[in-house]
Design goal:
Layout (H helix, E strand, L loop, with lengths): L22 H17 L11 H7 L2 H4 L4 H18 L7 H16 L9 H14 L11 H17 L7 H14 L5 H16 L7 H12 L1 H18 L9 H20 L7 H9 L4 H16 L7 H4 L1 H8 L7 H17 L7 H11 L4 H12 L3 H11 L2 H7 L7 H23 L3 H7 L2 H6 L7 H15 L6 H12 L4 H31 L7 H19 L8 H11 L2 H11 L5 H15 L11 H12 L9 H10 L4 H14 L8 H10 L4 H14 L5 H13 L2 H11 L5 H12 L9 H14 L8 H13 L16 H5 L4 H19 L6 H16 L15 H19 L2 H4 L4 H6 L1 H4 L4 H16 L9 H4 L7 H20 L4 H14 L2 H7 L5 H19 L5 H10 L3 E3 L14 H24 L17 E3 L3 H8 L6 H14 L21 H5 L52
Antiparallel strand pairs: 1-2
GO molecular function, one term: structural molecule activity
Organism: Babjeviella inositovora NRRL Y-12698
Subcellular location: Nucleus
Length: about 1200
């Protein structure tokens, strides 16, 4: 066995009375001793030889020496002694405690690398880490204090200038202490965990040693730290969830810190939160809303953090399921927080790792019953970039976008605005791929423009402004490249359904009107600020004109801005450059680049206007006005690209043709420099019907006739083209200076007509149009032609009906020539109408009567007028088209005053058959055209009651569309104090009374209530659309007034019979139902029912005055709705009007008198009491007639009704 080495150092370290040691000498001795100890090998020394030195080293004279060097070397020596004596500790517990305290003080000086004993302090740190002697402190009585001391020391060093190369040593020391400690002091645990939070606020953890210490401690003591953290969190949560203190903001803030810490731990050491997840899971079920919100938020952030070493959904599956259930939490705040966190997850996770449940949950929140949750869901989706939204959310659930679109009509304005912005931005971001032909993406987002454009039908100026900004900044933004600009517009157009196309057309049609108004504003501003000497009254007049223009413009601008002040500021600023830029931007002569550059410059200058009244809204106001007034959609710069796409015969061809057609309607002047291009289309293309439409509108607008080669082509098309081509060829020839000779040439070549000719329909189409363009050509052949068409076309079928026949055939299918026989029948009906339109007033009578009778018969017979005994039955789709054509052509004739008077009440009532036709296509087409004619006031208001016969419409979309139209149109009428909708009530009452189904029901006692319910359906539909607090009294007056008149459409002698027949009673029955409806609404709304102060005569075509006062009294005092039916009817009324049920039984409604003469007004009408009636009382409160038309409905509506052109363009088959 080798000889063990003894300690060579024999000098004293402590001064004595005999030997005094100077500090310098002491340092030398300690340094010498330290050098020998540091090189000593534990396995090769005689440990007993070290006892003398060991005993000297533990002396307070050394450990607490005033000289830092003495302390440093002493500590180094002690550290080596501990190493050499290991595993036994050569010191007592108090001695060890003092030694480690001194060592920790030395470690604190490591922050100063320039201090003279830095190397000794580094040596200490290495020794503690390598020898692990530091773990001895965990067994000492004051272990907690020492542990806190070392942790505090090293973490404070970490916050200072701690050398990076020493960080692993310090981390090892702290980890060993945690590993060996029986308990971890609360202060230490807090110190360790707080570094997770500090790491969240730090820009980088690279220079954060304290955070590295914490990570090392947690990673090296995973199980231990997991238990400690769970206990730590549990204690804090328990302390802070006392129900009596839960409202304390500080308590919630404290819990918030714990949750923040949980998230931070999850990001770096997720394994530590195994037990903590159970605690947070419990919070999801807490009674307190704030705690559930906090737990939902934290778990959402934890789940959304990606990537993570731990798969949350599998490792904490129960907590995951409970978190997903928060979409059904009773608290809207919790549900809103859930969807917010779900969006964060979408933002953070990779494309392929988004759980389907998250997407379904977001979709569920979009349909939440609480608007706060819906708004949170919309905002959450808005935060997701379009590319990620498509790649993650929509790739998981394609229906989510449709669900989002359902909120586009949300009543809550912020939700609606957010949805529109999200959809528009998504479409804008996706367009580059749409342009490249991405069909799957097109299917996903191609419908977005239609949804946005359909918002126009709500007719709210705030919504209209929102739509305009979406259209002009997202759907069709400024683009200098003509090809992509045009492709984008055609891409939008080709996805639009007819309703959305009309809205798109309305946007472009208003351009000219608004451009004219803005031009006036600029002119008035120049005049007012011109500087020339003008009379004061001229200035006043100009100011009044400016005020009028400003108010007109403000009526269509959003309510939430200061539009009027902005426009006023514009006038006062008198910026001549602005005037020029506006003129350039709104001129129909400006090309696209000029408009774009003018608006860009103007907007840039207006954005600088601040600090003045109205200046803040200057940019937004004029941006909206110029978008609306500038010719950016149908601009002349776009024509070449559109024509090229039309010729290309690609996916954009149909939309390009439609673009050219619509441009010719809205702004024909754009073709001035491209008219030769249009003529070229007519000459070179094989199918030119749409091009001919465009050429016709241009030629009509500018009174230009085409060149000879085009005229020759027109003559050829009128004979051998398609029916549509023939029609427009004749129309264009009708604009020619030699109209009659040209059309005569065509007529001579095709007449007499040959029904067996393959071009018969084309020839008939030409003849139909000739009646309007050159009627003298047909003056001698009209009768013969009419007889031929009736006998050989209308009353003859060359093919009979079969079971496989469809119910309907579209215009597009007819135009392809698939049903030439049906086309011939429809052109025949148009031929009769055009002949009537061409006749002189004095000669129409003998011709028009049979035509009106024919149309009425077609409607009444369901479209079948062929004799079944001698001919084949008419196919079902033929009948549908014939019924529709008859109804539409009656409306067309009614546009002419001479024929409008011939449309009697019986004919109008017959049109209810079309409104309630068995074919939805017939109903939809007819009511659409009726709305258009009524809105543009080209037909009499006697047709208005037909609209309310849509009350029984089974298609709720069609019914709701009608209801929206009625409310919009009636609101416009209310503004102009036009009471046509209120007057329509008496016409509606009369029409219902003459409805055959109603008459049949009320004629039998058993179905009497059903008959009243049938009438109620129409009245309730009308009242729901029309009634307001301002007109309720007028409506009640009109309903009451009916009982003071006779029915002028039935035989007068019926009123003289002893027992009044049903045809007499029905009018008064319906009138009383109307009174009941108005009265129930008045009662439910608590409106004031006032006596109407004026006397109104009911329309003479329907009503005739009573023969005597006695007759009036008798009718007025009679109740025509039996008492037995009134109570049940009252319940039905409240249901139809969606009114809350009464607490008590509704009293019977009794007839009230709203007299028209002063005498009757002051004297109540009395009647004898009978078992079936009671005396009525009347109201005596006067009202101001001027207030009658001040509608309480929305005043922020702007009309987008498409008005008729001078020559209406319709389907050839109406």
């Amino acid at each position: 066995m080798p000889l063990l080495q003894k300690l060579k150092f024999k000098q004293k370290l402590l001064s004595s009375a005999v030997e005094s040691i100077s500090t310098k000498e002491l340092l030398n001795r300690l340094q010498k001793l330290s050098t020998e100890l540091s090189t000593a090998d534990q396995d090769k020394i005689n440990i007993a030889s070290f006892d003398a030195v060991k005993d000297q080293l533990f002396n307070k004279k050394l450990l607490k020496h005033t000289n830092q060097g003495v302390q440093a070397f002493t500590c180094c020596c002690c550290a080596d002694i501990l190493r050499l004596y290991a595993p036994d500790a050569p010191f007592t517990a108090p001695q060890l405690s003092d030694i480690f305290k001194t060592i920790f003080l030395q470690l604190r000086r490591l922050e100063d690398a320039e201090n003279p004993y830095y190397q000794q302090q580094v040596y200490l740190l290495k020794s503690l880490a390598e020898v692990r002697s530091v773990v001895l402190i965990t067994d000492l009585p004051d272990a907690e204090s020492l542990v806190e001391k070392v942790f505090t020391t090293l973490y404070e060093l970490a916050s200072a200038n701690f050398p990076a190369k020493l960080e692993p040593l310090a981390a090892d020391i702290l980890s060993e202490i945690i590993s060996e400690s029986e308990t971890i002091p609360h202060k230490v645990l807090t110190l360790v965990l707080n570094k997770f939070l500090s790491s969240e606020t730090s820009l980088s953890n690279v220079s954060n040693p304290g955070f590295k210490f914490t990570l090392a401690i947690c990673n090296m003591n995973m199980d231990r730290m997991a238990r400690q953290i769970a206990q730590y969190f549990s204690e804090i949560m328990y302390e802070n969830t006392n129900l009596e203190e839960i409202s304390d903001a500080q308590t919630i803030a404290q819990l918030g810190k714990i949750h923040d810490l949980s998230l931070a731990i999850w990001k770096h050491v997720p394994e530590l939160l195994g037990s903590v997840m159970g605690l947070i899971d419990d919070e999801l079920l807490a009674e307190n809303e704030k705690i559930r919100v906090l737990a939902t938020q934290t778990l959402g952030q934890i789940i959304g953090h990606s990537p993570s070493r731990v798969n949350f959904t599998t490792e904490h599956s129960e907590t995951w399921l409970n978190w997903m259930k928060k979409t059904l939490d009773v608290s809207p705040r919790v549900r809103a927080e859930w969807v917010k966190q779900a969006a964060n997850m979408v933002l953070m996770v990779s494309t392929s790792h988004l759980p389907e449940e998250i997407v379904h949950g977001i979709s569920k929140c979009l349909l939440d019953s609480d608007e706060r949750v819906r708004f949170a869901a919309c905002r959450a989706i808005a935060r997701v970039p379009s590319a990620k939204l498509v790649a993650t959310v929509l790739a998981t659930d394609k229906t989510l976008l449709k669900t989002l679109a359902q909120l586009i009509r949300e009543r809550h304005p912020e939700i609606r605005t957010t949805v529109v912005q999200v959809l528009a931005t998504l479409y804008d971001d996706c367009f580059p791929k749409l342009f490249q032909g991405d069909e799957s993406l097109d299917a996903l987002v191609g419908w977005i423009p239609e949804q946005i454009l359909n918002l126009i039908y709500i007719n709210d100026r705030n919504i209209n402004s929102l739509v305009d900004m979406a259209v002009f900044e997202k759907l069709l933004p400024t683009d200098a490249n003509a090809e992509t600009r045009v492709a984008r517009q055609l891409q939008v157009m080709r996805h639009l359904e007819p309703k959305a196309k009309q809205a798109f057309m309305a946007i472009s049609k208003r351009q000219q009107q608004l451009a004219g108004v803005l031009t006036k504003l600029v002119e008035f501003s120049e005049s007012y600020n011109g500087g020339a000497e003008t009379a004061e009254e001229d200035n006043v007049k100009t100011l009044q004109q400016i005020d009028t223009v400003n108010r007109w413009l403000c009526a269509s601008l959003p309510e939430n801005g200061n539009a009027y002040e902005t426009l006023d500021l514009f006038v006062r600023l008198n910026n001549r450059r602005w005037y020029k830029l506006i003129r350039l931007a709104i001129s129909s002569e400006s090309d696209y680049d000029t408009i774009a550059s003018s608006m860009k410059e103007l907007f840039a200058k207006m954005s600088e206007i601040k600090g003045k009244k109205g200046g803040a809204d200057m940019l937004s106001t004029f941006k909206l006005l110029l978008y609306r007034a500038s010719v950016v959609l149908y601009n002349k710069s776009n024509i070449s690209s559109v024509v090229a796409m039309s010729k290309a015969r690609g996916s954009f061809q149909e939309a390009a043709d439609e673009w050219l057609e619509q441009a010719s309607v809205t702004n024909p002047s754009v073709f001035k420099s491209h008219v030769q291009t249009l003529y070229g289309l007519v000459l070179t293309e094989t199918s030119v019907a749409k091009s001919l439409k465009t050429v016709f509108r241009y030629c009509k607008k500018f009174l230009e006739q085409p060149p000879r080669e085009v005229t020759d082509k027109l003559l050829s098309l009128a004979i051998s083209g398609t029916p549509q081509e023939a029609k427009y060829s004749i129309k264009i020839l009708g604009l020619h200076s030699d109209t009659k000779p040209l059309i005569q040439d065509v007529f001579d070549l095709i007449y007499p007509l040959n029904a067996k000719s393959p071009k018969f329909v084309t020839h008939l189409s030409s003849v139909v149009q000739m009646f309007l363009e050159s009627p003298l050509v047909l003056v001698y052949d009209a009768e013969e032609l009419t007889s031929f068409l009736i006998k050989n076309i209308l009353l003859t079928n060359t093919r009979g009906a079969v079971d496989s026949d469809p119910e309907w055939i579209s215009d597009e299918a007819l135009e392809t020539g698939s049903e030439p026989e049906l086309s011939a029948k429809l052109y025949t009906l148009r031929c009769f109408v055009n002949r009537l339109k061409s006749l002189e007033t004095s000669s129409h009578g003998s011709v028009s009567g049979p035509v009106f009778k024919l149309f009425s018969t077609l409607i009444g017979s369901g479209g079948e007028i062929v004799n079944q005994k001698t001919g084949l039955p008419t196919p079902k789709h033929y009948q549908s088209r014939l019924r529709l054509a008859a109804g539409l052509l009656l409306l067309k004739l009614a546009k002419l005053p001479v024929y409008s008077n011939m449309v009697n009440p019986q004919t109008v009532n017959r049109l209810t058959f079309v409104v309630q036709d068995q074919s939805e296509n017939v109903r939809r087409e007819f009511i659409t055209k009726a709305k258009k004619y009524l809105a543009s006031e080209v037909v009499s208001e006697k047709f208005l009651p037909l609209i309310f016969f849509m009350a029984h419409e089974p298609n709720t979309e069609v019914r709701d569309d009608v209801q929206t139209w009625v409310r919009s149109f009636s609101t416009r009428c209310a503004r102009s104090k036009d009471v046509k909708f209120e007057r329509t009530l008496v016409r509606l009452i009369h029409m219902i009374a003459h409805n055959q189904e109603f008459a049949d029901l009320v004629s039998v006692e058993a179905t009497l209530l059903k008959g009243f319910s049938y009438a109620l359906e129409y009245i309730a539909f009308y009242i729901n659309c029309i009634a307001t607090q301002q007109n309720i009294s007028f409506l009640f007056y009109l309903a009451s007034r009916v009982k003071q008149y006779r029915d002028n459409t039935i035989d007068e002698s019926l009123y003289d019979q002893a027992v009044a027949p049903e045809s007499v009673l029905n009018l008064y029955r319906v009138a009383e139902v109307a009174q009941m409806v108005v009265k129930e609404l008045h009662d439910a709304k608590n409106w004031t029912l006032e006596t109407y102060p004026a006397r109104i005569q009911l329309t003479a075509d329907l009503f005739a005055p009573m023969k005597s006062v006695e007759e009036t009294k008798r009718i007025v005092s009679t109740v025509f709705v039996p008492e037995t039916a009134q109570a049940e009817l009252a319940k039905l009324i409240r249901h139809k009007l969606q009114l809350a049920p009464k607490r008590k039984a509704a009293p019977r409604v009794k007839p009230a008198v709203n007299p028209g003469t002063p005498k009757a007004k002051s004297t109540p009408v009395k009647r004898t009491k009978s078992p079936k009636s009671k005396v009525a009382k009347k109201a005596k409160v006067a009202i101001n007639p001027e207030d009658l038309r001040k509608s309480s409905r929305s005043r922020n509506n702007v009309s987008y009704t498409v008005s008729d052109s001078e020559e209406e363009e319709t389907s050839d088959f109406e």
